[in-house]
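anyone else get weird line breaks when pasting these?? whatever heres mine. first is seq + tokens for prot A
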Amino acid sequence: MNEKRVLVTGSCGLIGSEVCHHFHEAGYSVTGLDNNQRAVFFGPEGDTSWSLERLRKLPRYEHHAIDIRDRDGIIRLMETARPAVIVHTAAQPSHDRAAQIAFDDFDTNAVGTLNILEAARRWTPESPFIHMSTNKVYGDGPNALAMTEKETRWDFTDAEYQRGIAETFSIDQSLHSVFGASKVAADIMVQEYGRYFGMPTCALRGGCLTGPNHAGVELHGFLSYLVRCNLIGKEYKVFGYKGKQVRDNIHSEDVVRFMLAFAEKPRCGEVYNLGGGFDNSCSILEAFAMVAEITGREQIWTYVDTSRVGDHICYYSNLTKMKAHYPEWGITRSLQQTLAEIVASWPSRLSVAQ
């Protein structure tokens, strides 16, 4: 076994590519797995070929265009690579798109995760297995909490939730969306392989993961897509809740820093709510104002008085558990810094994005 090899699924996506670069800098050889399925899910705007070109410049990067639904291909690759760490970020990531492609969504998110897990159990069960889950596993449960409507955002009324949603929050008896349900299946299976087989696994229930390398589209990639619309004068549609719905945002580099911390000190069958927390939260209306201040351009937007199915009115992550288990980890990028980086990144890609 190569003691310093990481296998990264979805290696050309936002988090996957960040994982590749960050672990490479930490001395790992990188086996990347990505067949650009994002372009199939979202069309040309979702194409990540540009990201693969960046990865190919890494001296110790090796690429495999294998679909995670290809069970035999995944098992053969795991047998050959025998990675010391596995980071599984490949997914059908759109809350909205999932309902239109239910089989593809479940086969990618749930069955694809099982393929990776079982291949790991057969060939490298001692290697830390890090799964990129989602806060959508909580469904619309957070919407049942008491909310206070403020001038530009909704917020939790109860002091118990002032630091956000913790990992103990129930995932049952709620509307998840088709996407949320497929991710629940994957999330639970990752935990089960940790608890049942004693494998060092964790599911990271991400909020809005973002950064300058995000290829945001309307159905996925909130801040990246919002910035792109602002820069090219494209109309941004706000779906419900008066544009006051709140999300916490975390820079992709802070996400990967936590993954590296877990890889170095793994635990079995853990879950963590991974987001920017209250300090890096914003509503859509607040994001419009923050981006306009950076670019000098007012946001063009329209309002649709119908919210997305299972969407959260207010959600930000309680980071208490993460910080207790990994006290050396913390948020290093403010929301303002992250937005500035996203704004700076788009001009070089606008010819492709348009």
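and prot B, same format (seq, then tokens)
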Amino acid sequence: MKILVTGSGGLIGSEVASYFAAKGHQVHGVDNNMRADFFGPQGDTTWRQKQLAEKHPTFKAHKLDIRDRQAVLKCLEELRPEAIVHTAAQPSHDLAASRPFDDFDVNAVGTLNMLEAARRYAPKAPFAHMSTNKVYGDAPNEIKLKELAKRWDYDDPAYERGIAEDFRIDRSKHSIFGASKVAGDVMVQEYGRYFGMYTCCLRGGCLTGPNHSGVELHGFLSYLMKVNVTGGVYKVFGYKGKQVRDNIHSHDVAMFIERFIEKPRSAEVYNLGGGRGNACSILEAFELAQAATGKKMNYEYVEKNREGDHICYISNLDKMRAHYPGWDITVPLNGIFEQIAAAWKERSAK
């Protein structure tokens, strides 16, 4: 199978590219290392692109800016892929506020460019889009919460298993990033419904893994572990450090995308996270980090929380498991911490 992966130098894009290339599929990776422009040298992903090319003979890299409409159309016309995995994005809340044009052009316009090119030249190709749980804005903060010793949790039985896909996406503060991702998310759904294409939006929780180039503005666990391994100071922004995220390993994301490509559906949305089993607060993450490295976390507390930030977010995975019963979480939370710790130790030693 010929698969096109955008953002192939990023965490999910590179994981997907590696996953399918290892199975012998022809993988075309699209990336222009925009992450280095967004986050500086520490966000550079060329190391991962080089790694993919060296390891997988069926992987081919293409330098392409998804904002360039004509270039995207030409690429799809030439390649005519049998499946498309769209992971390219501007991923930071804070950066979006200072660079709103770049944020919208990448997340919304870039997604539209990919969709229209796919409709013209690969209309039968399953189109998996990496959306985000930030499409729900800060509406999850309206759920009744209870404060525990080290975390916030839902105090409403309706959300015991987490937030499902029917949760509202409007009438809340999203951050500029969240709003641009809503635009892309809705367009992906619309191309499925209006044109009958096989599309899905994967509303990711905290996507993570050892290949993440985590930075302070994006990449929760990767950046946290980087600080722990290298001996820096981690900043906690508000909510007493008890804010909760559910974490999913990039390998489990790639496995779900494979299931979708095998049995595609039209205009679907899925809350793709680690679920309750892989959820932790920042304070709990500090303990897990120490268990993985033997080093205590150095941190400082900032009273002001990030705009539009979730106090507690846990993905309800019931719909994913019902539609694709062969899929489930395979990498537990402690395993994620151990893998990321090992990766940062290796990188910092170079």
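btw re prot B: The mean pLDDT is 93. The first helix runs from residue 11 to 21.
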